[in-house]
Amino acid sequence: MNSSIAPLMITANSASHTMSLALPLLWIALVASVTMQSSCGKSPLSRVGFDDAARQAWHDARITTLTTDDGWLTLVGLDFLESDAYSFGSAPNCSLRYLHASAPQIGVFTRAGDRVTFAANSGVTVTGDGVLITECVLLTDDASALAPPPSNAARTLRNGPLTITLVRRNGDLALRIKDNDSAIRRDFAGIALFPFDESLVVEATVERANAQGTISITNVAGFVEQQPIAAKLRFQLQGKTHTLTATAGSQDQLFIVFGDASNGAATYGGGRFLDIAPGSDGRTLIDFNRAYNPPCCFTAFATCPLPPRENILSIEIEAGERAPVSSHDDDASAH
Predict the structure, then answer these.
(1) Which of 15, 88, 98, 138 could serve as a FRET partner for 333 with CA atoms 20 to 30 Å apart?
(2) Please, what's the b/e burial string for 132-156 (b: 16 or more CB within 10 A of its CB; e: otherwise)?
(3) Which residues of 178-206 are buried (b: 16+ CB within 10 A; e: fewer)?
(4) Regarding beta strands 153-154 and 135-138, do their DSSP bridges make them parallel or antiparallel, or are they unpaired?
(5) Of 277, 292, 245, residue with least CA distance to 46
(6) pTM of the full structure
(7) What is the DSSP pairing of strand 254-258 with strand 272-276?
(8) Rounded CA gap, 312 and 308, in Å?
(9) How far apart are CA 30 and CA 95, in angstroms?
């Protein structure tokens, strides 16, 4: 009897001893876990509005904006001006020829230093900021709204389907021409998307930049510009930590130009764009399912920024907009 009881007594004592050692260790682990959660752990950000249906609504709005009057699909020209006079119209002998101009020659643009004027030909209908004009001074797209403009100044000229604005690009002045009857707009067949991938909606920490921080942005024409850094976004994806540098976007959003290993094959070779909400507690969500193509994907006359070195990811991001089926060609409505 004793021999049968003894082992049971030894087992019970061993279990009691093990438990006496395990309880303090369990308590230490529990305290450590609670401490970690209280110091650095936060509840995951809500994914409401980051599903396939929301992405489709975003895409529909994107297509509407892209195809609207004066949208990117209507951009058919970017004519840099020297100090000279330029005739403008549909005639072959015009300095700036656009087939959809309302007359063989609608008028003449003249540049003198940093000043560009336009004089309309008699009998031609040209409006400046919605008002019928015969001549005007063009304001650049970077002209200060605080500085009083000349009495006959205008920012936007219109003639038939054409819209003409004066822009400063790569440190020089150019006329930017849009044509609402452009072949690019007429033949646009939409943008293919990758299937929605919820794993590519990632949480990121937002590190706000100081006022002096800048990043070098090179555009497709090779012009380099220093732009203020708005924030750096750090996130985990495919087992690695990645960082994307953002500049200030529209409507208080963060704007990111990024590249990845899919560029030039499944996605556009010049990288893609992202608009990101800044977040309110040092965190935000990056939804790569909403990565979209730059305007240069559709027209040769946009001066798009290229992804800076810091924003080129070593992994493939097969989400968002795919590469176009065919590259753009110069629109037939341009000279």
Answers:
(1) 138
(2) ebeebbbbeeeeeeeeeeeeeebeb
(3) bbbebbbbeeeeebebbebbeebbebbeb
(4) parallel
(5) 277
(6) 0.83
(7) antiparallel
(8) 7
(9) 79
Q: Are 177 and 99 in contact (CB under 8 A)?
A: no
Domain formed by 72-179, architecture: Sandwich (2.60)
CB 260: neighbour CB atoms within 10 A? 22
Per residue of the chain (335 residues), what is the pLDDT tens digit? Answer: 333 333 333 333 444 444 343 444 444 343 333 333 333 467 999 989 999 999 999 999 999 999 999 999 999 999 999 989 999 999 999 999 999 999 999 999 999 999 999 999 999 999 999 999 999 999 999 887 667 788 899 999 999 999 999 999 988 999 999 999 999 999 999 999 999 999 999 999 999 988 779 999 999 999 999 999 999 999 999 999 999 999 999 999 999 999 999 999 999 999 999 999 998 899 999 999 999 999 999 999 999 999 999 999 999 999 999 998 765 544 545 55
Sequential DSSP letters for 49-97: T-SHHHHHHHHHHHHHHHHSTTSGGGEEEEEE--SSEEEEESSTT-SEE
Whole-angstrom Cα distance, residue 289 to residue 324? 16
Spatial distance between the Cα atoms of 284 and 249, rounded to a whole number of angstroms: 15
Residue 146 token pair: 């605080």
How many other β-carbons are positioned within 10 Å of the β-carbon of residue 58? 16
Tokens of 74: 């209507």
Give residue limits of the domains in the chain: 52-68+188-311, 72-179
Structure tokens, 50: 């980051």
C-alpha dist (Å) from residue 133 to 121, 154, 209, 300, 335 = 10, 10, 46, 30, 24
- Provide the edge-to-edge strand list for the sheet that holds 240-248: 272-276, 254-258, 240-248, 231-237, 201-208, 283-287
d(CA 21, CA 174): 79
| One-letter identity of residue 134 | T
Q: Interior CA angle at 159 toward 154 and 161, to 5°? A: 120
